[in-house]
Design brief:
seven-stranded mixed sheet, six-stranded parallel sheet, 363 residues, alpha/beta, binds zinc ion, 10 helices, globular
Amino acid sequence: MQTIKAAVCHEFGAPLVVEDIQLRAPEFGEVEVTLDAVAICHSDISYASGAWGGSLPAVYGHEAAGIVSAVGDHVSSVAVGDSVVVTLIRSCGTCPTCAGGKPTGCETPYDGDHGPIRTSDGGKLHQAMACGGFAEKVVVDQKQLVKISDKIAKDVASLIACGVITGVGAVVNSAGLRAGQDVVVIGAGGVGLNAIQGARIAGARRIVAVDMSEEKLEDARAFGATDGVLATLDAPWRAAYKALGGKGADAVIVTVGAIPAYEQALRHLGAGGKVIMVGMPHSDAFAKYEPVVLAALGQGMVGSKMGDVVIQRDIPWMVDLYEQGRLQLDSLISGRWSLDQINEAIEDTKGGKARRNVIVFKR
Ligand SMILES: [Zn+2]
Ligand SMILES: [Zn+2]
């Protein structure tokens, strides 16, 4: 056991407490990563607020990058000193879903209550999302890691672990967008901007961003949106139709967890199109839709978890695009904070103006 600093959630809705915790050494197939950066995702905030329940005390944080500092037995994919992206996608590789090529849907449960971390006095401490990245170090399964070039700044690399793969993957993998198709992206926050760049990379004809704020629509244009529509309009889908030349979209990517956004998503959709459900509302929130419309127009709705990525395939691809200047990552970061400032960083993220706030660790 070693002692490290982490931001611990003791009570839903209360500020996180930065304190000493215990981390055990990596075991079979596990890797210890000393983190350089961990970004704050809305999922962390939802968990910490109690929106989805879960075990306490807990360490959240799941969008990280760092350097491998120790490996357990039978670790072959990375070695000490490697730069890695740390994801929450813990896939067993052998369950029917993993074997079928969809590791984001792995059916083998992970018990975060019996993970590698303990409170300073040896008590139970939940490793949330199989990661616990709001900490100086993590011990995770080797399958959650992707080795990257040392040249890429870790704060930038951390974003790839969740926001980038979720947004780009929603368009490329979940929607299976073809070049020339039209896309509407609802919400131009961290994930939305990545869905927009995913659509640009996939060769979309028009990319319409829908958001409540004019400022975010400006951001959206900088990431590749061809048009922006204010969600505060009476019938925003009419403006989107107009932008698409009088038709609905082939794919509507919902990147926010608001129920009205889900209810409006179908209005933006053309015949044969698909709504890709990415944003995660609180548990027990329900949306209404008219089945007859979907049936008559051959439309679909599909949930997209972590962009349906295969991290070993998709993250190296995205890193390549970044190095070629085709995927924007630097401008996604709107603030850098220390671990001690994590509650301020969370408040700033909740304010809705931030793209991504990143906790940066000093060595
Ligand atoms: Zn996330
Ligand atoms: Zn599995």
